[in-house]
């Protein structure tokens, strides 16, 4: 297991960042789908978009 990339293989850091980014993208998609189901009177209605924006930045 190596930290740096080589011509034959990506390093551990690159692979970890790749999978972390993939998880965040899928998580944001799921959060967005959940947000559209909220009613105006739901407690999360105003908090969820702020959470969505802060994770996306």
From TrEMBL:
Tagged with keyword Metal-binding: yes
SUPFAM superfamilies: Transmembrane di-heme cytochromes
GO BP annotations, alphabetical order: respiratory electron transport chain
Transmembrane segments: 12-36
Record's keyword annotation contains Transmembrane helix: yes
This protein's GO CC annotations: plasma membrane
Cleavable signal peptide: none
InterPro entries assigned to the protein according to its UniProt record, in alphabetical order: Cytochrome_b561_oxidase, Di-haem_cyt_TM
Keyword tags: Electron transport, Heme, Iron, Membrane, Metal-binding, Transmembrane, Transmembrane helix, Transport
GO molecular function: heme binding; metal ion binding
Coiled-coil regions listed: none
Name of protein: Cytochrome b
Organism: Salmonella enterica (Salmonella choleraesuis)
């Amino acid at each position: 297991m190596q930290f740096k990339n080589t011509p034959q293989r990506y390093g551990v850091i690159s692979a970890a960042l790749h999978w972390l980014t993939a998880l965040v993208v899928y998580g944001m998609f799921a959060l967005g789908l959940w947000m559209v189901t909220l009613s105006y009177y739901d407690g999360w209605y105003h908090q969820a978009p702020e959470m969505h924006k802060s994770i996306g930045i």
